Amino acid sequence: MPSTPMSAERAAPPDAGRPVLSVAEMSVQFKLPQGWVTAVDRVSFDLRQGEIVGIVGESGSGKSQILLSLMGLLASNGRCSGSAAFEGQQLLNRSPKELDAIRGSAMSMIFQDPMTSLNPYMRVSDQLTEVLIAHQGKSKSEAEEVAIEMLDRVRIPEARRRIRMYPHEFSGGMRQRVMIAMALLCRPEVLLADEPTTALDVTVQAQILELMAELARDMKTAVAIVTHDLGVIARLCDRVIVLYGGRIMEQGSVDEIFYNPKHPYTKGLLASTPRLDEKVHGALKTIAGQPRAAMGDIPGCPFEPRCTLKVERCRTEMPALLGDGSGRAVACRESKA
Ligand SMILES: Nc1ncnc2c1ncn2[C@@H]1O[C@H](COP(=O)(O)OP(=O)(O)OP(=O)(O)O)[C@@H](O)[C@H]1O
Ligand SMILES: [Mg+2]
Question: Is the pLDDT of residue 195 over 90?
Answer without folding.
Answer: no
